[in-house]
Write a structure and sequence with these properties.
By secondary structure, this protein is mostly beta strands. About 5% of the residues lie in helices and about 35% in strands. It is built from three helices and 17 strands. The strands form four sheets. The chain has a five-stranded mixed barrel. The protein has a five-stranded mixed β-barrel with strand order 12-13-14-16-15. Strands 1-2 form a two-stranded antiparallel ribbon. β3 and β4 form a beta hairpin.
Length: about 300
């Protein structure tokens, strides 16, 4: 793949013909230098002398801004952010990773998927275009040069929230909990009494065979994502999920008859979260929020 360029005077006299160029990144200009050589440049100069700059020049010159500030920029504007890797490429799709800084988190999308070797906790600079997919902000990168590894930090800590507080934390690693109210394949729904949340398990996470049942309480860490169907939480591995099985109480004769007749009243989701024997769940009592929800 590739092409070449020829320049002509208005009277159709040939000025110069370039060598064949190969496929290149977006927003790159193939330009003629004064010595008649042809060079790629990231600076377009219509009706003016050519200026030759590289992608690295642009990355160096543009200032780093917080992730949440990047989200306020117009669509397709170039931005540069610095943060820590919270989800590795390949886990939620080969073209996707997640990054977060002190202000928030964001999806990084790379159509070519030519990622460098990354680890959770790597501190990186990302240079790309801000965009929105299904209501979720993302930064689209176009070249491996758009990803610069600076070093390694401790893995990011999740922010502890109840379900009703999650809306402003899309793209960020969060921790929440709730009672299982619905199960459908790789998707489950939980409710903590303040709201309902969908959890989805990507195949690459290896999350399966959890033995979950309706009524179980789960404490889950994951990246909050958004689709056309609303918010969803994406755990990264089984280690992101703690399960507290529902207590099985002996049924009275009356309750058994009611169940057989279909007259037993279902318990509202989240209504009995205070009934957990906290002494049997090490380290959780001090993590109850003001509403009493187990985080």
């Amino acid at each position: 793949d590739g092409d070449f360029v020829s320049l002509f005077w208005p009277d159709n006299i040939l000025i110069s013909t370039s060598q064949t160029y190969k496929n290149t990144d977006h927003d790159i200009s193939w330009s003629r230098n004064l010595d008649n050589s042809w060079i790629f440049t990231t600076t377009a100069t219509p009706e003016a002398a050519n200026i030759f700059t590289t992608k690295q020049d642009e990355i160096i010159n543009i200032p780093v801004i917080p992730v949440e500030e990047a989200k306020t920029n117009p669509k397709n504007e170039w931005v540069k952010v610095e943060g820590v890797v919270s989800v590795l490429p390949g886990l939620f799709g080969k073209r996707v990773m997640y990054l977060q800084d002190a202000s928030g988190g964001i999806k990084i999308y790379f159509d070519k998927a030519l990622w460098p070797a990354l680890k959770i906790g790597d501190r990186v600079i990302i240079y790309g275009k801000i965009s929105i997919s299904a209501g979720e902000y993302q930064i689209k990168v176009y070249s491996p040069d758009d990803i610069i590894i600076l070093g390694h930090d401790p893995p990011p800590e999740p922010k502890k929230l109840i379900i009703s507080e999650l809306g402003n934390f899309v793209g960020q690693l969060v921790r929440t909990s709730g009672r299982v109210v619905k199960i459908s394949g790789s998707t489950i729904w939980i409710d903590d009494g303040t709201g309902e949340l969908r959890l989805y398990f990507y195949p690459a996470t290896g999350i399966k065979g959890l033995g979950l049942e309706k009524g179980d309480w789960v404490v889950v860490v994951g990246v909050l994502s958004k689709t056309s169907a609303g918010l969803r939480l994406l755990p990264r591995s089984k280690n992101d999920i703690k399960i507290y099985k529902k207590a099985v109480k002996p049924k009275s004769k009356e309750s058994i008859v009611a169940q057989i007749l279909g007259k037993e009243k279902p318990q509202p989701a989240g209504a009995d979260y205070r009934n957990y024997e906290e002494s049997k769940v090490p380290g959780t009592k001090k993590e109850l929020n003001p509403l009493g929800v187990l985080l």
